[in-house]
Amino acid sequence: MKKKLLIMLFALLLGGSMALITLYKLNFKAKTYPVAIYQLGVYKSYDNALKKAQTAKGAIIISHDDNYQVIGAIASSKESQNKLANLLKNEQLDYYLKELDLNEESKETIDEYELLINKTDDLEVLKKLNEELLKSILERMK
């Protein structure tokens, strides 16, 4: 009788702990940070996305839901968003402002670049910083 009771107690403890571990894993999600992306277009074909990306120096292509998004800029602060929006308008590029959730490492990279972006009004410097930021983010997404 004692042996059966011990086996049942052990089974309950084992089953309960496995259930708690599974529940914890299902509820655990990595923290993400929303950022603004300046989407220049969405294409079914990679070739079409590449053609669009070539019209905007430094633009990147992100595969998302069987589509290819062409991203012309990315920012998290309002000041950077305004500067990059003006940069794209100056380049005569139309965009759709969208939101993308990134991990902490990518968000920190954006924050580092934004320190420089927010300190300059030179369009050529902004272009170069934007290109480098986009390349860096693309590398982190691979």
Descriptive report:
- The chain has 142 residues and is an alpha+beta fold.
- The chain folds into 2 domains: 1-29; 33-141, 2-Layer Sandwich (Alpha-Beta Plaits), CATH 3.30.70.
- Helices cover 58% and strands 23% of the residues.
- It is built from 5 helices and 4 strands; from the N terminus they run αβαββαβαα.
- The protein has helices spanning 2-27, 46-55, 78-90, 104-117, 123-141, and strands spanning 33-43, 60-64, 67-75, 96-102.
- The chain has a 4-stranded antiparallel sheet with strand order 2-3-1-4, with helices on both faces.
- Helix 4 packs antiparallel against helix 5 (123-141).
- It is elongated.
- The N and C termini lie far apart (58 Å).
- The relative contact order is 0.15.
Question: Can you describe this structure in just a few lines?
Answer:
The chain is an alpha+beta fold and 142 residues long.
Give the averaged pLDDT, no decimals.
Answer: 87
Structurally, the number of domains stands at 2
What is the 3D form? elongated
CATH superfamily of the largest domain: Sporulation related repeat
Q: Tell me the CATH topology of the largest domain.
A: Alpha-Beta Plaits
Which key phrases capture this entry?
Alpha-Beta Plaits; 58% helix; alpha+beta; 2 domains; 142 residues
Write the SSE topology.
Layout: H1 2-27, E1 33-43, H2 46-55, E2 60-64, E3 67-75, H3 78-90, E4 96-102, H4 104-117, H5 123-141
Helix pairs in contact: 4-5
